[in-house]
Amino acid sequence: MSRAKDLAKKNSLRIKRKKRVRGNIFGTAELPRVSFFKSNKYISAQAINDVEGKTLAAVSSQTMNLNVNKENAGKVAAEFAGTLKTAGIDTVVFDRNGYLYHGVVAAFADALRDNGIKL
């Protein structure tokens, strides 16, 4: 297979996982959904109230001038936890967005827990 076909297959499998995960979770004002996204350069997350379709809090490693690795995921999660606490949110539902729960995704979730956010 060519590289383009491999990447297309990898992305289509992630989209399938994303749809399967999103079918089971839903964010409200009291219990928002934290949607995690990672690219090859940056990671970002946002707390979403799906009832109103509004973003309650957001963070991106791009604004912090950090690239993607486990250590930086912890730094971004610590910043996000502070933003969530400022908004009065201490419990969330984690949406891994179709990514497998290991590496950067797991480091981000663990750092959120370590900073006092219940997942």
Which fold name fills CATH's third level, the topology? Nucleotidyltransferase, domain 5
Oligomer: single chain
Number of strands: 4
Name the CATH architecture: 2-Layer Sandwich
Structural class by sheet pairing and helices: alpha+beta
Molecular shape? globular
Number of domains: 1
| Largest sheet: number of strands, sense, barrel closure | 4 strands, mixed
* Proportion of residues in β-strands: 15-25%
The termini sit apart by 39 Å
Q: Which residues sit in consecutive blocks of at least 5 with pLDDT less than 50?
A: none
Rounded radius of gyration (Å): 14 Å
Q: Please give the share of residues in helix.
A: 40-55%
Helical segment count: 3
Order of helices and strands: HEEEHEH
Strand order of the largest sheet: 3-2-1-4
What is the averaged pLDDT score? 93
CATH class: Alpha Beta
Indicate the topology:
Elements: H1 3-22, E1 33-38, E2 43-49, E3 54-60, H2 70-86, E4 93-95, H3 104-114
Parallel strand pairs: 1-4
Antiparallel strand pairs: 1-2, 2-3
